[in-house]
Write a structure and sequence with these properties.
437 residues, mainly alpha, 3 strands, globular, transport, transmembrane helix, Battenin
């Protein structure tokens, strides 16, 4: 049964609701809105949590605590390269590669296939659980890497699925999703660094995090309000009035629910839309390339022997500082809007130069200066992410916005994947250099 928009308006005018009922309905609508904002914040937190923890644990996973043959001692390094640098034999970029390559493959194909959102969320939860268990109980390095891969698939599938699903809700859920992903960074890195600092082993710390996939299920199925796809105009009547799709749920026409954009049906139509998204994808992709080259190619080699923390702890707390900057930036889009993302690309490139120079020459006089640079790096990365998707949510609508959300998430994945590939040879090269006097 088809109903025109005008008929809906006339029906509401003919049957006015009592004032008390309207107040109650407004309160309920407001409560549902807050409920959805909270749900998307929690979904962002849980979706990226395992990914962040695996990167925070990268130095430990590659050390003798998880494998008896992955760490070079100082004497071995001297014999091989006349170096006294404290290096793992394998770069933490190897963990990054295992954490991003499967996610990249998922993001390539997921926007083009049917959604099945509820099934995907269940799969995400199971994969996150498997990732923590595999890494915690790993006796060989391949088991730990398999756990990291499970976390990567879960995170990639979740980002595409939930960003697409957010198109059915008010635009503000994009900002709370971004804030939640930023929260996963600070809470994930801080929880791992804090629990290991107070005496928990890395293995036991990961087991404590099994509560995260449970929170993911509760947030999606019990906190988030169920909504169908937005209303879509499929034709007009003889008077030129729009008719709604009879298979969609009839709602009062609002900005967030009514779209005049045509549906993207075919694979070819979706491919043809990709070039129009490059203005969003290229800047954010470059920002992520630069910052993950810093995090996985440089920070592991930035070491202050006179600091109060050992090398592994310094790396963990550098990532906590970085994630704090990401969290603050991703939570600020409703206060500060940045239209020209390319400016952030330039800032992040400067950060890469500064920390690359430090990794080679160890010139900074204090660890606190390094913390400040890393914090600024996190602010730039978080701002690029949230402002990119915020622009999409305001410049596109309907099915095109839904597809653009999923497709643009591929850009940061490409940047991170490239950074992982670049960081491994950089690690090998820098570990072979002597420590400057």
């Amino acid at each position: 049964r088809r109903q025109s928009c005008s008929e809906l308006g006339e029906r509401q005018q003919k049957t006015p609701e009592p004032k008390s009922r309207r107040i109650l309905l407004n309160l309920m609508e407001s409560g549902e809105k807050v409920r959805n904002l909270i749900a998307f914040w929690l979904l962002g937190l849980c979706n990226n949590y395992a990914y962040v923890v695996m990167l925070s644990a990268a130095h430990d996973i590659l050390s003798s605590d998880f494998s008896n043959s992955t760490t070079l001692t100082v004497n071995e390094i001297r014999e091989i390269s006349n170096s006294t640098r404290d290096c793992n034999k394998m770069s933490t970029a190897a963990i990054l590669l295992a954490d991003i390559a499967p996610s990249f493959l998922v993001k390539v194909f997921a926007p083009f296939i049917l959604t099945f959102t509820r099934c995907r969320v269940v799969v995400m939860s199971l994969l996150t659980t498997a990732s923590f268990l595999l890494v915690s109980f790993s006796t060989e390095l391949w088991m730990a890497f398999l756990g990291v891969v499970c976390a990567a698939i879960s995170g990639g599938l979740g980002e595409v699925t939930l960003l697409q699903y957010s198109a059915r809700y008010n635009k503000n859920v994009v900002s709370t999703w971004a804030s939640g992903t930023g929260g996963s960074g600070i809470f994930g890195a801080l929880s791992y660094a804090g629990l290991t600092l107070v005496g928990f082993s890395p293995r036991h710390t990961l087991l404590l995090m099994l509560v995260v996939p449970f929170i993911l299920i509760v947030s999606f199925f019990f906190v988030l309000e169920r909504k169908r796809r937005p209303l879509r105009i499929v034709s007009v009547n003889s008077d030129g009035e729009p008719l709604l799709d009879e298979e969609e749920e009839v709602r009062e026409p609002k900005e967030d629910y009514l779209s005049t954009e045509p549906e993207l049906y075919t694979f070819k139509e979706k491919i043809n839309m990709i070039p129009t998204l490059l203005k969003y994808m290229i800047p954010v992709g470059l920002v992520y390339l630069f910052e993950y080259t810093i995090n996985q190619g440089m920070l592991e080699l930035v070491y202050f022997p006179d600091a109060w923390l050992d090398h592994s702890s310094q790396y963990r707390w550098f990532l906590v500082t970085y994630q704090l900057g990401v969290f603050i930036a991703r939570s600020s889009v409703n206060l500060i809007h940045i239209q020209k993302i390319w400016i952030l690309t330039i800032f992040q490139f400067v950060n890469l130069i500064l920390l690359s120079y430090e990794a080679v020459f160890l010139y900074l006089p204090s660890i606190w200066i390094a913390f400040i640079i890393v914090f600024w790096e996190g602010l730039i990365g978080g701002a690029a992410y949230v402002n990119t998707f915020y622009k999409i949510s305001h410049e596109l609508s309907g099915p095109r916005r839904e597809f653009a959300m999923g497709a643009t998430s591929l850009a940061d994945c490409i940047g991170i994947l490239t950074a992982a590939a670049v960081s491994m040879p950089i690690h090998t090269l820098l570990c072979s250099l002597p420590v400057p006097e």
